[in-house]
Specification:
There is one protein chain. This protein has about 350 residues and is of the alpha/beta class. The chain folds into 2 domains: about 10-180, Rossmann fold; about 185-354, Dehydroquinate synthase-like, alpha domain (Up-down Bundle). The chain has helices at about 20-25, 45-50, 70-85, 100-110, 185-205, 210-230, 235-250, 255-265, 270-280, 285-300, 315-325, 325-335, 340, 345-354; strands spanning about 10, 35-40, 60-65, 95-100, 125, 135-140, 150, 165, 170-175. It has a 6-stranded parallel beta sheet with strand order 1-9-6-4-2-3, sandwiched between helices. The model has no long low-confidence stretch (mean pLDDT about 95). It binds nicotinamide-adenine-dinucleotide and zinc ion. Nicotinamide-adenine-dinucleotide binds near residues 98, 144, 194 and 269.
């Protein structure tokens, strides 16, 4: 049986970002203690950044261009740069402020500052040997559940696969719903749908237990409330947190493997890639896909169409193999004999409909 680890500390509530200073004070040993801030580039020169307790002389601030999802090459370069800037002294904290992209990059950095080698060496399950640097997540958009999961999703040359480890889990999270005010409508839906899909895939999977079911059901209720009823960032933050817990303790299903293929080969971001894939899964998640189309209509958000129409056979093949590499999710969705049911031909048919 697995011995589950969770985020140690959390602060939840409007304006809770102001607590960051106190959290760091407790962590700092002396005046030389410093942090590395990874901040989504949207917040460069914005009020939020100005209010952070950044020590101008010693803290290191990196603005993350979340136009690209985390890539192993980027992480390896970042780790080198931070080591140079910090003169190889370890920071007291790594702080990720942004969405899943920034939070996952902060996870990778905290691991690679204390573990030798390259980011891609740790893609897989429980490959990290040394404890990571203490880390804090402050999500500014909600749905991925990255703030609570034991994975840092990472793309390398050949695969999109997370660093799955207890050392990927944040030590502290600060959930401040006010930070979501500026999220554009389309992105809000894509990322919130990530949470919706985590719950659906988790609930429909074979390895769900009572604990994960409780998290997934409550998360789905909250995300549905906010996507179909009155938009409520507080509810979405809690939904994302519970959705992350649900999926971390069970698994995803059919949509995520297809979505990983779309991201890896065609470069679509996780949220929108999930939506594109989910929209073609009526056969498996009938009621939920219908509900999803209602959500798109309500928010007046449209999805790109015919995205595989002019794509070469070679790329289609790459997407098929990237999808079928996800044994655990597909086994969760279809059972042990998933290969007989979800064949390469079946994947191809779905991809060609997108
Ligand atoms: P994101 O971090 O990629 O950000 C999407 C866009 O939203 C960016 O343009 C960013 O600048 C903008 N943004 C973020 N906060 C904003 C704000 N408050 N106001 C205005 N704009 C804002 O989006 P995401 O969907 O949260 O994260 C996707 C990433 O998360 C993918 O890389 C995916 O693989 C990863 N992911 C990780 C896990 C996990 O458990 N670790 C789970 C699911 C997805
Ligand atoms: Zn996801």
């Amino acid at each position: 049986m697995r011995n589950f680890k969770n985020v140690h500390h959390y602060i939840f509530g409007r304006d809770s970002i102001q607590e960051l200073e106190n959290v760091l004070k407790e962590k700092y040993q002396n005046d030389n203690s410093f942090s590395v801030y990874l901040i989504d580039i949207f917040f460069k020169d914005k009020d939020l950044t100005k209010k952070l307790p950044i020590k101008q002389k010693s803290d290191i601030v990196v603005y993350v261009d979340s136009k690209d999802e985390p890539h192993a090459d980027y992480i390896n370069t970042l780790v080198k740069e931070i080591k140079v800037q910090s003169k190889r002294i370890l920071p007291a904290a790594v702080i990720g402020i942004g969405g899943g992209t920034t939070m996952d990059i902060a996870k990778c950095l905290s691991i690679l500052l204390t573990n030798p080698g390259k980011a891609e060496d740790y893609q897989g399950w429980d490959l990290v040997k040394n404890p990571a640097i203490y880390k804090i997540a402050i999500p500014t958009i909600s749905g991925t559940g990255s703030e609570v999961t034991r994975t840092a999703v990472l793309t390398s040359k050949i695969q999109k696969l997370g660093i799955n480890s207890d050392y990927s889990i944040y030590d502290q999270i600060i959930l401040d719903p006010n930070l979501m005010k500026t999220v554009p409508k389309d992105q809000f839906v894509y990322t919130a749908m990530d949470c919706y899909i985590h719950c659906v895939e988790s609930l429909r999977g074979n390895i769900i237990d009572e604990l994960s079911q409780a998290f997934a059901e409550k998360s789905l209720e909250l995300v549905r409330d906010t996507l179909l009823g009155e938009t409520n960032p507080e509810k979405l933050m809690v939904a994302s947190y519970f959705g992350g817990l649900a999926v971390a303790n069970s698994n995803v299903g059919i949509c995520h493997p297809l979505s990983y293929g779309l991201s890896l080969v065609l470069g679509y971001h996780h949220g929108i890639a999930n939506c594109i894939a989910f929209n073609q899964l009526d056969e498996y998640y009938t009621k939920e896909v219908k509900e999803f189309r209602k959500i798109l209509k309500k928010f007046d958000v449209s999805l790109p169409r015919y995205i595989t129409k002019r794509v070469s056979q070679d790329k289609i093949d790459k997407m098929i193999s990237a999808t079928l590499r996800n044994e655990k999710p597909l086994c969760n969705a279809f059972g042990e004999n998933w290969r007989d049911i979800f064949t390469a031909e079946k994947v191809k048919q779905i991809l060609l409909r997108m």
